[in-house]
Amino acid sequence: MAAALRLGRLHIDPPVVLAPMAGVTNAAYRTLCREQGAGLYVCEMITSRGVVEADETTLSMLVFDPHESVRSVQLYGVDPVFMARATQILCGEYGVQHVDLNFGCPVPKVTRKGGGAALPWKRRLLGTILEATVAAAVPYDVPVTMKTRKGIDDEHLTFIDAGRIAQESGCAAVGLHARTAAQHYSGTADWDAITELVEHVDIPVLGNGDIWEATDALAMMEKTGCAGVIVGRGCLGRPWLFRELAAAFTDGPAPALPLLGEVAAMMGRHAGLLVELMGEERGCKEFRKHISWYLKGFAAGGELRQSLGLVDTLATLDSLLTRLDPTEPFPVAELQSPRGRQGNPRNVSLPDRWLEDREALGVDASAEVGVSGG
Q1: Which is the catalytic residue, given 105, 171, 235, 284?
Q2: In this predicted model, what pLDDT tens digit does every residue of 325-350 receive, in sequence order?
Q3: Which region among 205-209, 251-255, 276-280 has the lowest average model confidence (pLDDT)?
Q4: How many alpha carbons lie under 13 Å from residue 307 in its C-beta half-sphere?
Q5: Which entry of 101, 145, 170, 211 is 20 to 30 Å from 160 by CA?
Q6: Residue 373 region by backbone torsions, left for phi larger than 0, else alpha for psi between -120 and 50, else beta
Q7: Gap between the Cα atoms of 180 and 349, Å rounded
Q8: Does residue 71 share a domain with residue 197?
């Protein structure tokens, strides 16, 4: 049985964190996952400028379920002044109790401006941002954590320096997605890098990458010595993965895999929560992206899948879900199978001469765009 994860005054038990995912981890999906088992559930990534400038889209994402005991937000930015002010607003006006900082995004339009996974190459800039954010959170007794990647590519690794800087800056923990930005979401995660980071820092390390089942989480913690795990793509269309994780961390029996009837019920509840959050038209549109994840491996026919992918009302969804066979067993062949985006390795887009000076403080302000990923 793994010990609870401690992040400042927060005790996370089991030591499992739902990774923030754009368009996925809104209040509706966090509710589903939270109901399946305890842990920490992080809101979609928001930008510091969006918070400070009261951007309507940004603020619309700062919605929490009344039963969310810990309000957790991932914040992204490249300017220490904006990051500090945004943190003050989040903690003081929105009751946020945990702030995670994103320095792992590999998306080209972010890295080519020096943001995301490119930024930790600039050690002084990273330290300045982390110190300003932590200082802003201290009066609220709110822990700040950092999420990063191994580095830009295999020739330009940053994770050891980044972990050390996070510790020196007062971060409560560091999360490591054990891939480089060049890997994007392809290939396999290098869990040995997580082990290496654990050996180099004293603050908790959270491991991320290739946790498709509860057994993977246990294996990662045993192999690397990390203090907790971050689960992202593995839970897409599978909120019940968190009940499996909760059972695994208490040495309890593994819950039965859901039949298609239970999956259909979860789909209906998910859509209903989205409608409560956004209204029927937008909520149903938002739900469409989840259809293929929920039904991955099941025998639902192409015509039915197509109809579900066009659903525009809850009544239509309920009618279509009745056409699924409630007794169909979960497709065990899909276990241990990657979910969500994967793609291929790619060259990382960087600003001109970015690699020449690791101590420079300047970065293009336009690197702060609302693109999530880590």
Answers
A1: 105
A2: 999 999 999 998 888 777 789 899 99
A3: 251-255
A4: 16
A5: 211
A6: left
A7: 13
A8: yes
Give this prediction's pTM: 0.94
Pairing of strands 156-157, 151-153: antiparallel
Provide the Cα torsion 81, 121, 75, 7; round to 10°: -110
Sorted by sequence, the CB contacts under 8 Å of residue 140 that are 6+ apart come out as: 91, 92
Residues facing residue 74 across a β-bridge: 100
For 4-29, the pLDDT digits (tens) are 899 999 999 999 999 999 899 999 99
Please count the structural domains in the chain.
2
Domain housing 134: 5-255+344-367
Residue 374 has pLDDT above 60, yes or no: no
Tell which phi-psi region holds residue 102, choosing left (phi > 0), alpha (psi between -120 and 50) or beta.
beta
Retrieve residue 254's tokens: 């593994």
In the chain, how long is the greatest CA-to-CA distance? 61
Which helix H or strand E contains 361, and what residues bound it?
none
pLDDT digits (tens, 9 = 90+) for 198-208: 999 999 999 99
Beta bridge partners of 153: 156
Torsion of the alpha carbons at 188, 191, 194 and 196, rounded to the nearest 10: -120
pLDDT over 70 at 142, yes or no: yes
The whole-angstrom separation of Cα 14 and Cα 164 is 26
Q: Are residues 163 and 277 in the same domain?
A: no
Q: Is there a catalytic annotation at residue 235?
A: no
Give dist(CA 321, CA 42) in Å, integer. Answer: 29
Are 82 and 169 members of one domain? yes
- Average pLDDT over the chain, rounded to whole? 94
CA distance 60 to 273: 16
- For the CA atoms of the chain, what is the radius of gyration? 20
